[in-house]
Amino acid sequence: MANKFDINSELVKKLADLLDETGLCEIEFESTGRRIRVARSIGGAVPAVTVASPASAAATPMPPVTSDAESSAEHRRGTPITSPMVGTIFLSPEPGAEPFIQVGDTISEGQTVMLIEAMKTYNPVRATKSGKVMQILVEDSTPVEFDEELLLVE
Q1: Rounded to an integer, what distance in angstroms lies between the CA atom of residue 9 and that of residue 121?
Q2: Is residue 36 a contact partner of residue 29, using CB atoms and an 8 Å limit?
Q3: Which of the residues in the chain have pLDDT under 50?
Q4: By the 8 A CB rule, do 38 and 16 touch?
Q5: Dihedral pair phi/psi, residue 56, rounded to 5°
Q6: Which one-letter DSSP state was computed for residue 29?
Q7: Residue 37: its pLDDT value, please?
Q8: Is residue 127 within 8 Å of residue 84, measured between CB atoms?
Q9: In this structure, are residues 24 and 17 in contact, taking their beta carbons and an 8 Å threshold?
Q10: pLDDT at 38
Q11: Pick from 31, 27, 127, 46: which is nearest to 84 by CA?
């Protein structure tokens, strides 16, 4: 059996490149009882790598990832509208244009509130609820994950 610190650097590089291409925050690959997890922060920090052998993978579970948004959940009001896919979020229809929505706006169910670019295609994010925009939880041109909270509506 190989040493648990023997790392396939080519595989790690491919996984890190895949993170950049897809906008994901982390990716995990497991084969023949060995697990490699590559993760980065949304701010674009250098990817972190975790390699686990079968024995240590079972003994040490990975800690849950929490975001600033989750830690301040008690200060938020409203129902979240979440991302329908992984991609890059855009708050306006084109650079320099007015954003689709602003805090305090009243929106209608089905209204386009943002765009997500995925695989060179711009997809509308539509409001799943009518109401007043209480908070926008993402910044323009940043990666988002599937089901990530984008804004709060009350």
Answers
A1: 32
A2: yes
A3: 1, 43-47, 56-60, 62-63, 65-67, 69-72
A4: yes
A5: -75, -25
A6: E
A7: 77
A8: no
A9: no
A10: 76
A11: 127
